[in-house]
Every structure is written in structure tokens, then in C-alpha cells.
Amino acid sequence: MSHPPPSGPGKTSPKLHDDFLNFDPNKTAPGRNLLADHLQSAGDGVQPVALSGECKHEYTTKHVQSILPPLDLRPDGTTAYKLAVVCKRCRLHAAIHIDYALATNPCPNQQYPLHHFQRLHHEDGMSPTHITYAWQCSASQCQASLRIIYNTPRFSDQDRLLLTDTDRLKRRYEAALDAKPGREDLRLATPNDTLNWLRKYIQDGLDPQQKRRAFSADNKRFVAAFGQQGNDCSELLTDLGFKYADGEWTLPNPPQVLDRLRSDGGSHRERLEDVVYELAACMSRITIDTGAVNPAAGESWPSASRDVERTLAAQGYQRHTFPRRSNTTSEEHAYFSTLGALSDFADTLVEFAFDRQINCDPEAQAYYFECLQVISESRNTEQLQTKVVMLQSEGHISRRDITKAYRSFGLQLPSSNVLYTDQHILSTFQAQLSDVSPAVAADLREALYKIGCSRDSSMLMNASRQTVETVDDALAWLGNDVHRGTEDDFLVAVASSKMDSDADTQLTKSAISVLARSRQSNKLNTWLTTGRTDGGDMSVDEALRHLGIEQKLDDLDKSVLEFQFDSARQDKPGEQTERAIKAIQDASGRSSGYTQPPAMQQHAPGTWPVGLKSHGNTCYLNSLLQYYFSIKPFREIVLEYGQHKLDLHETHEKKHRVGGRIISAQEIKGGQRFAKDLQGLFQRMIVEPSAEVKPEKDMVSRAFLEAEQYDQLPSSAMDEEIVWDRTRPATRSGSPAASKREKPTPADEDSLRVVRQNSNASSVTLQASENGENDAAMVNSVAAPPTPPDSPTMKGLFDLDLPEHAPPLPPRRRFTNDEIQKASDTALSVAEKKAAAQQDVSEVHDNATQRLRAGLKVDGVDEFEEQQDILRQLYTLSVTDTTVNQDGTSDKPKLRLEPCIQLRVPQTDTDLYSALDEVLDPQPSDIKPGASVYASLLQPLPPILQINSPRIDWDAHTKAAKKFDATMRLVDELYLDRYCDQSGEDILSTRKQGWVWRRQLRALEKERKELMDTAPALELDSATAMTEAGAYLKGVADIDRDLAELGTDGLDLDLDLAISLQDAATAQAERLTKINADVEALKKELAPEFQHAKKIKYRLAVVFFHRGNTSGGHYWVCIHDFANDIWRSYNDETVSEVSKDDLKQIFEAQGFNQGTPTYMVYVQDDKKEELVQPLCREPEPADPWPVQMVDATETTDPKPAVRAAPGTVDPKLIEGQNWDAERVVEPSFNCGSETPGWEKNVVDGRCVTHIKLAAGPSNGERAMPDLGWSDRSSPSPEALEDLPDDPMYQGRGHKRQADSVRNNSPPEVVEEGRDGSQM
């Protein structure tokens, strides 16, 4: 019978050791089993208390029954241990069995410093005499099996009373005297005498060396203790194994126990051994209670605690050093206990215990995070605070945070008696949001996000992030009882009433956009683009109202109109604002035509980079992809990855580290697969004729999934790698033109050797359509034909000079739509969770480069055994750390290699040089007390210098993670001479002088901050606060005088206090003035510090920006096009120029809207135009759209399709299609048609019939080869196999359905829109 694996929370081995010593199985209340249960009482106010009569155990080891772990032996898969103990107080027996049979790398080890035991309830057992509890170590490489067995005392209370009752002993003594009145030396036996003599008899019986195995039943001591002939105690003696015959008692002679490890304690010998220990315990208790002499007092009772530690591998763990007079409260103990830890755990072990608990019991993750927060606040250590901050930045939310979030809306924490719907919570949020300040609104959104995470509600999370992604989200946001059947007019009315603020307006429009796409409603679409439901231009009154102008047009001062327009564009950017401006300009005669602002200008495809559409939570990934594409060497590595990748036919592993660790063969393959997806995206960004590209779902998923999860992706599930042999024909059609083409290079041939079949499997977008179907439908059982020679992604594949015949291909596995969909959903579920939790561009960047490097060839190995490769050479920085001792001597510099310079979180406004100084200047040494360590950069420096500026840190005031929005002033030209000691002889001496000045400057700035931030809630500095307080006290004194005149007692304040406060305020104001003067003087000293050192010059090329808080936000990137000397902003699908006047938003971003720079990239000045080339476009001609297909014999032109006017629809809101336009698709083809207006072509002996277009230029007509059937016949499967591999026939234009062919029925040709939806 199979049993489920262990699950739920666990305990570390030291915690289990502590619980074992304190657990009394005889005094266990229901639901309060200290040893076996996980008591989650922390923070609930109900702490477990000791029950009356609980034993404070004094265990000692029963060595003869134990198999203890040797001190110098590490366990392996053949190891098992047993520890048997007995309590001196209650005579309880316990045995600890631990078995490593399943272990490959037992704990403790480098990854798991302690055992973490989970309960195995199905292995528990209970009987009248014993209880068994079972656990298993949660470490997959250990899985040590643990059982603790408790046994009741062998020596019952009745037996003890039989031997120790003084009245019975007196009667036995008197009976012995009566039997032999003149017997000498007979004395009354004491209770301890009786117990001691029985103990010695048993010990002699257990000793195989004891020769004398019997004694006389008339022995005077025996008679006094056990009665005449032992008759009073004969039943007990016989039960213990004594035998009476012929006036003698024979000692017990139990057989030896052959296997002590597996013995269950039920043997005769083990019972007698236990009785010996219990008799000693009884004698000790009698001595304590009565003061009687203990005959066994010379025998010690050593504690078994150390043996329990050794058996559980709990000894020698790292302990926390507590400050003097620091005690852990009982409530704090409960938080440690919840984590399965002890209060003396070092911070590292507290982290380990927390990580194990959330890994084993993810449902209670919020509860464990609360415990970690409380422990972090109690200890106030940097390590735990950093851990809490990192978890909060990853989206972890504690139970108390959730409780606080509910209280923000006046709600109780949900329970079995209190339940809320998502709609109720959202309505409460919206009601409160309407009348609060922006700061409070941000807090409410953060609270809503936390509630949404705790409920796993995408509706609440999207509402908190001000995003609407699904129909349910849209309906929930609009509220007012709207539902899927609500009429469009009512939806518009509700939407109009909710557009009170810019944020609400944008969110409301997003909601209507989602509903418009779902309903395919032109009415809602028209309202989005015009603000009206009946179409037409915006009226002047509507325009003025939209811009917030109260005067009539005739009353306006026309000279200030342009300023009002500029203000409106900043406050309400978007199409509506531009239409309003146009309406006012036309009415006032100030403009002859409508001109879009620079950011809205359209660009020719070949002259402007493409944008990248987000998949919902991937704005930071889009920013990274734009960065990668803009760096020419990076882009070329990806596009030519086939030349640089590791040949898996030659080797399947790497012996060297990548990212500081050894990687698996699966990671190598996964990296190459990720590179292939990235290569496809870059090719699309080059040839895409439109202004935007949506990265494929699989590529986005691979950016967040681990390599071992790639198999879940639909493209991986449908990949069939076919190695193209030179025996394969050049083309299926045998076209002679193919043989005339130029041969590819060997590198191209290698990169094209593996062909991915069924490529449409990965064209499904990350977001599902509103009706639950994927954007691109999958066709069952028909493999997609090979890509044609003209396809840019497979260029040159058929140019190879190959023989005419190919060997037959083996049958291929066919995947059903359900299989593909299931694989896709599984992968996306994991990827989306990681994407939603991800907030750090640098982490995604590290993961992406790690994946790419994993698949690259090794160009060498550095001294740290790290792989050197073509990608790493672009950005790896050599840094040396030099320790300066207290006596002024310096140790030998230590080298480290870094992918970027890691700045500290800027908590006050600063500049880039100051931030670099802060991390490269001397820091206190962690190893040598009193020493300091400074860092220097080694030449040659990499061509690309990456600088990470994290923004999330621990806030000591709020005791929580906080995003710091301090301004970071960037420089366009960065000179690094000052940090390279070998760049000049005087550099180091100049640096040292600067260190002294900067130390003084930081001390002054710290003091100034303390004086300025004394009362931050009142926005008062210290001097002003004391001045106001003094003035208030004087005012109170005046009131006291008035009260005294009325005969009422006042407050009797000391006027000297008010005077003292004002004197102190004056002194602090003078000190603040002095500090400001000293700061300015030091800055003047530092300003010309390195004016002479300007040889190593870098230019700012890329800046990543983030707007938001710790719960979420938005990323975008700005990139400098040096060749054209312009900056562009890449904001998902929108790529706009940053005007010269707005460059300050990049170099000195301030405020929420401008965001904060989080990652900067500088490039070497002399190579800047070679390194940074954002513009790399060779757009293909755009496909004509929309298309109408008609029968070739039709004599009338199709009706023109309705199409929205260009420039009237926001691309973020509308997908560009008119849903109400009908499309006619006829499956009939007539090769012999001579219809006027249709041209019959013959290419390579094959009939071609043109498809007439509904719109677009005449040269956009596309030709469809005759498939070999008439309008009365069905195509053969062979004809279907010969269908050209062109986007016209798959993905963009048509899908073939093989089922109709197999059933000999005419094919159904289904036309699709550009987004894959059927029309």
C-alpha cells in the first residue's frame, strides 16, 4: 500500500530535540501535542501553557540498548542509529530511531545545515503500552526516517508499592522472627533495601559472567524483603524470570539480543534492563522524599541530552550572540517555534528554517513571513532585515500585512464567520479612493494589492495596479451592477461617470477597450476614439470641458491657449486630448490643420525602432529586450548564435562554472533554446513592417522558467528536430531556380541544420482571448509545411546543393490541441506567477545572460574556474579589494570579477559620482576589526559598463520594505580614471585625500539630516519644532493668566521651559547654518579633485526607469542613438523621441511620473557608435489588410471592407480591426476560369489563380498555387504536403484542415486576422 509523501510544516532537529526533552505523552491535551503537532499560536494571543503534572524529564541513556553515531563518522545510505533513554522522574522509556536508507547526501550538508523533519502521520502507532511518532527529513538528498517510540514503565505502581510499603515490610520482618525466633542479624528491611536487593539480583542474572545462578529462599535478607520463601512477592519474581525449586530461587537467564538496532524492546532481557533503571529511579525518588540512604547513590545518572543531539545531528549549530540584558519573550519564542526553530538560532539558521517552512507548507506562507518579520524586528540585525526586504520586493506578504490591509478598508480579517466577495472589497476600495489624497490613495492601492495576492484574485491585483486585462476585471471596475449582458449605451453612461481623475479615466478606457474587443462592438470602439457613441468630431464645448476650461471660447485669451494645450498634454496625454485641441484650434482659426505632438508623430518603418507589446507583467522584460537589441555586439551574438554555441554532438556538459556554478546539460540545451527564441524575436524586430512586435509567448515564458520546466512549453512539446541530410532534395517542387541561388556559409548552414516543425505552436500569445480561446487556433494532425526560401527567418535553407532523393522520414508524434493547450496552460501558470512577482530588472537581466552563456562555447577559463565567452567579455569588470590595516599597511589586493557595479540604495538626493564613491571608498572590514577595504577598477575596462542602482531597502521608521525615490543625477560623460589606481601615479594619493573629505562631508550631512528630520510628520526641522513648542508654551502661560483672573486654576507650567526651548532652537539654527557652510566648503574642495584625470571616458547609453512602489509598478528604458544624436524612450509598444528640452527627465528624473533610474549602461566613448546601434531595420512590405476571398469565377468585385481612419485609434486600446465588417470566404477554386479581371499564370507547370483584394494597392495581390483539385474534387494529402510554406498559407492567411481531406470532403479555407482570430 502506497502512502503519500510527507507534507506540511516541519521542525529543525534542534527544535525537535528541545521538544523531545519537554514533551510528556502522559499529559497531552487534544490539539496540543508539543512534540508531534505544529502549534501555530504566534500572534494569536493564545500561547500554549504547561499542563498541571507535566514531568520535567531527566533522561539518561540506556547504553546497552543504544547504537549511537560515532563522533567522527558521517552517515550514508547504509547508516542507522538508535538511542534508548529512560526518565529518572516518571520512569518513562523512549527510543529514537533514525535511518538514512534513502539518503544520498545526508544532512547536515552545505545546502541543509540541519535536518528539517516533516511528520509521517500514516506511520504513527499506538497501543496500551507504547506510542510511536514518525517523521522524515524534507531534504530530497537526505530523507532520513525518524521514529520516536514511548513505552510505559515496566515496573508498575502496584509492584513498587508491594516492595516499598513499610507496613508490609514490617509484617514480613515479624513473620521471619516468628518462624525462627532466635535468628541472629535479622533486621527490618527499608524500602530502598528491598529495591536495591532486587536490583542486584537482576543485575547478576543479566551478567553472563556470574557463576552463582541460585540462592537460598531462606536467606535472611531475602526473607526480610520478600517474605518467607519469597511467598509475598513470588508472583512478581516469577514474572521477572526468577524460578523457585527445592528451597532455592534461580536468577533470571534471559537470552542475548542479537540485533539491538531493530529490537522493539519487547525481549525478556530488555525488560529486565529497563527494570534495573527504574529501580534506581525509585530509590532516588524515595531518598528525595524521605531523606533515606540511597544504596545506589554512587552510581551517576548522566543526562542524555547530548546523546539526543548527536542522534538527531543537532549538535554544534550556529547560535545567535545576544546583546547584554536582552531576553526573548514568550511571545517571540512562539514565532521561532512556528518556524520550527529555536530562539538562539543564528540569523542564517532562522532564514533556513523560514525557507524550509514556506517550501514545505506554501499555503501558510503569509503566516511564516509574519514570524520572520517579528523576529527581524526583535533582533534588529542587518541580515534578517535584508531578507525581509528581499522577500517583500519579490511580492511576499505577511499575515499581519494582510490584516492591516483589510483594516485600511474598515474590514475584519476573513474567517469562517466573516466572508467577503472580491466585488465587495473592490467597491469599498473605490468608495474610499474617491476622497483621499494621492499619498493615501497609493497606500490603499498597496493594501488592495496585498489582499488580492492573499486571495489569489487577479481582479483585485489588476485594480490595485490600475490595469484591466479580462472581461471580469472590466466589469468589476465599472461596478454599478453591470454584467456581460449590459447594453453598450449603459456601459458608456457608467464609464462617463467614473472618469473623475486621470488615473480613473485611463482605467475606465481600458475597461471599455477590453469589453469592446470581447463584444466586437463598434459603438464602444467609436466612444473610445471620439468620446461619442454616434461618431463625428468633438464639439467645441466638449473639447473645452475635456481640457477643464470653464470659459467660453470667445472669452478666452488666445495668447495663453498654447500654454493650456501643453498643460493638458502633460496632465491628460492621449487621443482624446489631441482631438479636443484640434477642435479648439479649428474653431479659433489658430491652426489650419491638426498636428500631433512630437511623441505622437508617425515614422516610416525603416527609420524608427519597433516597440514591444507587453504580456501583462513583462514591461521590465521588454525594456531588457530593447537594450539587448540596441547593443550591436549583443544583437549580433544572438543573430549569429549558431556560430558561437556549444556543439552538443561533441560534448553534453561543461566542466567550468557559468554564473558561479556548474550547470547541467539540460541548462545548456535550455540556454540554446532560449537563444533561438530571442533570435526569432530580433529577426522580427528587423523585418516587421508595423510599429510594434509582440514577443512570442514561449520566449517570454523561458525568461522566467527554469530550464527543466521548458518541456512544459507547447513549442518544446511539438519540437521535432530534423537533421537535414545532404541526400534531401533542394526543394519539394523541384524548382530549378533554387539551385541557382547562392550557397550559405558554413555557419549559416549549421544554424539552419535544426528545423523546428509546427512553429505555429508558439505563436499563441501569453494572454488568452476574452472568450477563453487562444488568439491563434491550432489545427489538429497536420504538420506545418516547411518555410519557403523567401522567408527571412529561414533564408538560405533551400539554397544547399543537395541530391534529389531523400530517405523516408519516420512517423512523427502528432499532438492534439488539448495536449498543446494543457502544456501551454501549465507553463504559463508558472511563468505568469514569476512574472507577476518579479520587480527587479537586474535579476531578469542576470537570468537572461546566464541562459545565453549556458549555451555558448567556452573560450577560456579564469582563475575562479568561470567560463570565458564572447558575451561575458562585453561587460565583465575586474575589481580589486585592498585591505588597509590599523597600522596603515596594506594587504595584497584581492581580485573579483563583477557583471556590474552595485550601488547602494540612495535614500537622499545624490549624483552618480557620489554613489560610486560610496561603494568604492573604504568600508569597514568584515574580517579584520579596525581595518578598512577600498575597491579599485582594473584596466582594461570592458566596452560596456553596467551600473545597478537598487531602490528597495528597509525603512527603520515603518519597519518594512520601502522604495526610495531619491533623485540620482546622472552624467552624460563618465570618467573612470579616479577609480583606476594604475591610471596615474597621483591617482591613489588624490583618492585618499578625497576619502578624508568625503568622510567629513558624510558626517556633516548625517548630522544635518538628524537636525532637519526631527519631526518629519510635521515637516519641521528640529530648530523650528522647538521654536513652535516654546511659542505654544508661552501661549498656554497667557491662557493660565486669563484663567487665574476668572478664578480657575491653570496648568501651572514652568516658563523657564519655554525660554530654554527657544534658546536651544537658536543654538540648533546656528549649528545648522554652520553645517551648511562647512558642507559647501567641502564640496568646493572636492569639485576640482579629478579635473586632470579625464582619459578613461564613457558615455551614457541606456537608462532603465521604474515608477511605482514595492508592490508593483512600471518599467521603461531610454536609449541614446549616438549616430543620430537622439534619445528615445521605449515604453512597451510606444517608442518616442525625447526632445532636447526633456533630457533633464533622463539625467535628473524627479517625482513619481518621471520615475527613478534603476540600471544604467555606459559605453566607451571611442566605440559608442559601434556598440550602440538601436536602429536596425529592413522592414518587409506590409501585407495588405483586410483581405476578402471570392470565387475565381465571380464576376463582381467584392464589397470594400470598412476600415477605421488611420490615426484615430489608440493602439493600446484597439487592435486595429473592424469587427462589424463581414468577410466572404469561398472554398471553391477553378483553375480554368477566364473571368475578366483575373489573370491565369502558369509557374513551373502549375496553375496559379490570383486572389483579389478588398483594399490596399493593386501590387499587394498574392498568388495561390493550384492545389490540384477543381471545385468538384477534393485535394489529396500529397497535394496538401506540397502547399508552399508561406505565411500566406499558415498563421496569417489560411489554415488547412486535414480531416476534411481524409473524409474526401472539400477543404474549408478559414481566413484569419493578423492577430490570429477567425473572421
How would you describe the overall organization of this protein?
This is ubiquitinyl hydrolase 1. One of its GO terms (molecular function) is cysteine-type deubiquitinase activity. Residues 756-771 have a biased composition (Polar residues). The chain is of the alpha+beta class and 1319 residues long. The chain has 42 helices and 40 strands. Strands 1, 2, 3, 4, 5, 6, 7 and 8 form an 8-stranded antiparallel sheet that branches. Helix 13 packs across helix 15 (438-455), helix 18 (488-497) packs antiparallel against helix 19 and helix 27 (665-687) packs across helix 33 (841-854). The radius of gyration is 41 Å and the shape is elongated. Mean pLDDT is 75; it is low at 590-600, 720-806, 809-813 and 1185-1319.
Topology of this protein?
Blueprint: E1 10-12, H1 13-22, E2 59-61, E3 80-87, E4 93-99, E5 116-119, E6 125-126, E7 130-137, E8 145-151, H2 157-164, H3 166-179, H4 191-206, E9 214-216, H5 220-226, H6 234-240, E10 243-245, E11 248-250, H7 268-290, H8 305-311, H9 330-338, H10 347-360, H11 365-379, H12 382-393, H13 399-408, H14 422-433, H15 438-455, H16 458-464, H17 471-478, H18 488-497, H19 502-519, H20 522-530, H21 540-547, H22 561-571, H23 575-588, E12 611-612, H24 619-630, H25 632-639, H26 641-644, E13 657-658, E14 661-662, H27 665-687, E15 692-693, H28 697-704, H29 714-718, E16 722-723, H30 736-739, H31 746-751, E17 754-755, H32 817-837, H33 841-854, E18 860-861, E19 867-868, E20 877-884, E21 894-898, E22 901-902, E23 910-911, H34 912-920, E24 923-924, E25 932-937, E26 944-948, E27 952-955, E28 960-963, E29 968-969, E30 973-975, H35 987-1012, H36 1022-1045, H37 1055-1086, E31 1097-1109, E32 1112-1121, E33 1126-1131, E34 1134-1138, H38 1144-1147, H39 1151-1154, E35 1156-1164, H40 1168-1171, E36 1240-1243, E37 1246-1250, E38 1263-1265, H41 1277-1281, E39 1294-1295, ...
Parallel strand pairs: 12-15, 22-26, 23-29
Antiparallel strand pairs: 1-5, 2-3, 3-4, 4-8, 5-7, 6-7, 7-8, 9-11, 10-11, 13-14, 16-17, 18-19, 20-21, 20-25, 24-25, 26-35, 27-28, 30-31, 31-32, 31-35, 32-33, 33-34, 36-37, 37-38, 39-40
Protein name: ubiquitinyl hydrolase 1
Region (Disordered): 1-24, 716-773, 1256-1319
Domain USP: 610-1165
